[in-house]
């Protein structure tokens, strides 16, 4: 859930969709593609300003690059139809805002966000959240609804309007204050549903969900490389990853929505804080790998280390690209 909130908040969350660095999963990938496409649009827009005689051809290239940025959200045929209905003028000084102000694009991104939130919530329950909390069907449905609301409000009420230029420094403080209050109200409803002990158990389960998902990826890669984990290895490795993550104290935890400053949003993702978070993630990965060597074969341990390094590099790339997309104009 923290992933979908950013997610799409730092998105793909986007930034945050959150999960900005670790949690990118489907939305992170979508955001990385959007950021890459945005770089292409900026270059095209710059050339258009210098060479007016080529405007017609360049506008066609811009339309193609928009399609690339939301490739995972709809089929190419549908995107072409929607893009064909867009106004032909694009502001070359702020192509991101122009793109996300378009109603067709907003609807596509909202649909992608809803799908991302649903996947995140379903992943929690598939991992055993309901049984962990001893919920009946009615309680499970109520919790799913609250978690869906939590993920959706960040995207639809904060991140997308910010990308469209509707939230800037003039109204950031008031909007951020409202978002935090809404998140706190949502948390209070979850606590009321689960009770104090159940709420604490839910928080732990949510915080450690990235480790379960990473382990699923590791397991698939190991099996594909002929280095399949035994059930005992998987159990021990999950315990190591969960324990180390739970006990690690981040200076600035970009994956925790309640540690973010919504009234001064851009201050959360300065280059210095992103670098510090990446360095701390590297420390955490190092601790996990040192212990993992006691339960993995040398070949598995080497593959495990390489995988974690790839994940960290992907997180850094996603954070920087998304920050570039959603940074101060």
Low-confidence stretches: 2-31, 53-63, 65-76, 86-93
| First and last CA, distance | 29 Å
The gross shape turns out to be globular
Overall residue-averaged pLDDT value: 75
Tell me roughly what share of residues is in helical segments: over 70%
Any idea how many domains? 1
Please write the string of helix (H) and strand (E) elements.
HHHHHHHHHHHH
Largest sheet features: none
The fraction of residues in strands falls at under 5%
- Please tally the helical runs, counting DSSP H or I stretches of 4 or more residues: 12
Name the quaternary structure.
single chain
How many beta-strand segments?
Answer: 0
As a whole number of angstroms, the C-alpha radius of gyration is 21 Å
- Derived from helix and strand composition plus strand pairing, the structural class reads mainly alpha
Q: How does this structure look, described?
A:
The protein is an all-alpha fold. It has one domain. It is 73% helix and 0% strand. The protein is built from twelve helices and no strands. The longest helix has 53 residues.
For this entry, give a set of tags.
single chain; mainly alpha; 0% strand; 12 helices; 329 residues
Task: Outline the fold blueprint.
Layout: H1 2-6, H2 25-50, H3 55-69, H4 76-84, H5 95-101, H6 103-126, H7 129-133, H8 137-163, H9 172-224, H10 231-247, H11 271-292, H12 298-326
Helix pairs in contact: 2-3, 2-12, 5-8, 6-8, 8-9, 9-10, 10-11, 11-12
